[in-house]
């Protein structure tokens, strides 16, 4: 048999069992069924908040007033929303990261189920008053409320998302191939460096772009960060963290909208000079291109700051083309005026003739050809008549030179027969001097016989300009005013034969009398005509001279426009690199901050001196 169980042990077991049964029966009646027992985390958070309410939310979370709260700040860029060049505003979506130590938020994890960290709303505890200095947001609050992460050592980590709108000075000189430099300055609104020291989170001196979403318009080429001390009071400073963003524009969109049309319009402008200088359509085309450049300039103005003191090179190129088009239109007006009223102007000045001769050969300008106008055709006719007159009157109704004795039709007939042109002469006399009713084969034969007899009898006698149709009639009838009766009787045989001929061709003789008269009238008419032709030739020559001047001016301006546009296009439109390096810009920013500190220090010295004097 085993050993007997002690009585004391049995009593202890009985007591424990009784307590268990009693608790099982009575506990539901003591604690309501809807009561929730708080977890250790809730008890911990409640305890921390109660401690904070007792100590007070206002004021730095330190037990010793001489201690400095060190706040770490980091910036994680999530998205570059927009860079408004017109208003010079940069809009970005970021996560701001803060860390600091709150001495009022410490606990022993062993007392709270080994809980090492909790989440607390930021409105219940102290948070650093760090703000964006260069903000231009109409909203007074950029951040979104998120919970703070607190560990048992009092280390607080807070990462609220925010949309910041900061001022960004825009340099549009190289638009749309430009680089922009923006920065964000963070610092405490009220506390200087003795109370709160602002440092970079994890000593990371750049913007974190690990979660960055690429922008279609801008490319980030550098993102450094620097720490500066900004003077607040005499002897006091506020630490400031500045985050820089160096951006490069993607010019594809603006190239198709602003640059490519500009180049096409510049090429079309050269077509203007292919038109004749005196064509009014040239002015119309120039004004249409001028309006096109004006529209491009308007689009450019809408994309750039209105109050900027810098004009983009593209705008200079637009204005240059508009200026050249205005000059071209002005010159076209002068050219049309010279071409239209050249006959009313005097001859081309000698100095202008020299200039035209100087540039006509290098510019491949030839003298304008003679047109096919009737006046110029008459000029060629005048040359032919002059040549015929030099051949002895054949083909010229004047019958020879203007000075001296003009040739009688009989003498002209002899000369024509000698030169083999008698048939043409006879036809001329027959057509111009014979009435239409008497033009037949019989009268033509009689005229031929008569002219040949007169050529044999007169033997080339010259007639003066005082010869009259009556003298010619007497010659045909076989008498002259100076012959005596005796001489007429000796020539009776010839007179009978002539009289018989006269009777047969009475009508043709009268028609022959009109030959000399018609030729005389024709001579006077041709003389007047030649004078008019000479005047028209002089005016035409003067017009051609002025036309040559006009062509030279137009061609000179064409080469001037071409060289200026090509040179300006290469200088203004070719993309440039960054004007200053990142290090140079940061150094310039640092130097500017140092100058401000020196200025503030000098102001403090003046204030102290004034206070000492008082």
From TrEMBL:
PROSITE patterns (UniProt xref): NEUROTR_ION_CHANNEL (PS00236)
A GO cellular-component term linked to this record: postsynaptic membrane
Transmembrane intervals: 12-37, 253-276, 283-301, 313-336, 556-574
InterPro entries: Neur_chan_lig-bd, Neur_chan_lig-bd_sf, Neur_channel, Neuro-gated_channel_TM_sf, Neuro_actylchol_rec, Neurotrans-gated_channel_TM, Neurotransmitter_ion_chnl_CS, Nicotinic_acetylcholine_rcpt
Neurotransmitter-gated ion-channel transmembrane domain span: 258-566
Membrane topology: Multi-pass membrane protein
Record region (Disordered): 478-509
Family in the record: Belongs to the ligand-gated ion channel (TC 1.A.9) family. Acetylcholine receptor (TC 1.A.9.1) subfamily.
Protein name listed in UniProt: Neurotransmitter-gated ion-channel ligand-binding domain-containing protein
Species per Swiss-Prot/TrEMBL record: Opisthorchis felineus
């Amino acid at each position: 048999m085993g050993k007997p169980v002690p009585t004391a042990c049995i009593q202890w077991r009985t007591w424990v069992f009784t307590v268990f049964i009693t608790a099982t029966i009575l506990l539901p009646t003591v604690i309501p069924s809807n009561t929730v027992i708080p977890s250790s985390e809730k008890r911990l958070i409640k305890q921390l908040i109660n401690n904070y309410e007792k100590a007070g939310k206002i004021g730095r979370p330190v037990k010793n007033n001489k201690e400095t709260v060190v706040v770490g700040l980091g910036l994680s860029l999530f998205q570059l929303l927009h860079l408004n060049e017109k208003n010079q505003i940069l809009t970005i979506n970021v996560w701001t990261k803060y860390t600091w130590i709150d001495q009022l938020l410490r606990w022993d994890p062993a007392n709270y189920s080994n809980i090492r960290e909790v989440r607390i709303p930021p409105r219940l505890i102290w948070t650093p008053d760090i703000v964006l200095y260069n903000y231009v947001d109409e909203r007074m609050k950029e951040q979104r409320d998120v919970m703070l992460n607190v560990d048992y050592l009092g280390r607080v980590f807070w990462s609220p998302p925010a949309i910041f709108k900061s001022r960004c000075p825009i340099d549009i000189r190289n638009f749309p191939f430009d680089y922009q430099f923006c920065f964000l300055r963070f610092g405490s609104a009220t506390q200087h460096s003795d109370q709160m020291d602002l440092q970079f989170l994890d000593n990371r001196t750049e913007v974190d772009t690990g979660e960055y979403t690429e922008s279609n318009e801008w490319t980030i080429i550098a993102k450094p960060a620097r720490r500066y001390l900004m003077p607040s009071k005499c002897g006091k400073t506020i630490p400031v963290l500045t985050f820089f963003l160096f951006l490069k524009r993607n010019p594809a969109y603006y190239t198709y909208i602003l640059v490519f049309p500009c180049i096409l319009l510049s090429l079309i402008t050269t077509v203007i000079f292919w038109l004749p200088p005196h064509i009014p359509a040239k002015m119309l085309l120039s004004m249409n291109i001028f309006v096109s450049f004006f529209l491009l300039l308007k689009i450019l103005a809408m994309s750039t700051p209105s109050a900027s003191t810098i004009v983009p090179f593209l705008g200079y190129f637009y204005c240059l083309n508009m200026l050249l088009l205005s000059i071209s239109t002005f010159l076209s007006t002068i050219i049309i005026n010279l071409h239209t009223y050249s006959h009313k102007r005097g001859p081309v000045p000698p100095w202008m003739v020299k200039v035209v001769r100087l540039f006509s050969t290098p510019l491949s300008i030839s003298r304008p050809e003679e047109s096919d106008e009737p006046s110029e055709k008459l000029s060629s006719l005048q040359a032919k008549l002059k040549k015929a007159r030099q051949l002895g009157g054949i083909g010229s109704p004047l019958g020879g030179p203007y000075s001296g004795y003009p040739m009688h039709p009989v003498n002209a007939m002899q000369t024509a027969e000698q030169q083999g042109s008698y048939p043409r002469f006879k036809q001329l006399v027959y057509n111009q001097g014979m009435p239409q009713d008497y033009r037949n084969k019989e009268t033509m034969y009689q005229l031929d016989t008569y002219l040949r007899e007169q050529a044999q009898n007169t033997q080339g006698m010259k007639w003066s300009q005082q010869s009259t149709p009556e003298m010619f009639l007497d010659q045909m009838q076989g008498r002259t005013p100076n012959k005596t009766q005796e001489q007429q009787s000796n020539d009776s045989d010839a007179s009978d034969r002539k009289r018989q001929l006269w009777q047969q061709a009475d009508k043709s003789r009268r028609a022959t009398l009109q030959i000399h008269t018609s030729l005389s009238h024709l001579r006077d008419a041709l003389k007047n005509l030649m004078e008019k032709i000479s005047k028209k030739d002089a005016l035409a020559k003067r017009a051609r001279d002025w036309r040559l001047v006009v062509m030279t001016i137009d061609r000179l301006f064409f080469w001037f426009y071409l060289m200026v546009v090509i040179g300006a296009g290469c200088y203004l439109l070719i993309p440039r690199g960054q004007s200053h390096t990142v290090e140079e810009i940061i150094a310039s920013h640092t130097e500017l901050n140092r100058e401000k500190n020196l200025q503030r220090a000098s102001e403090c010295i003046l204030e102290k001196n004034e206070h000492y004097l008082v």
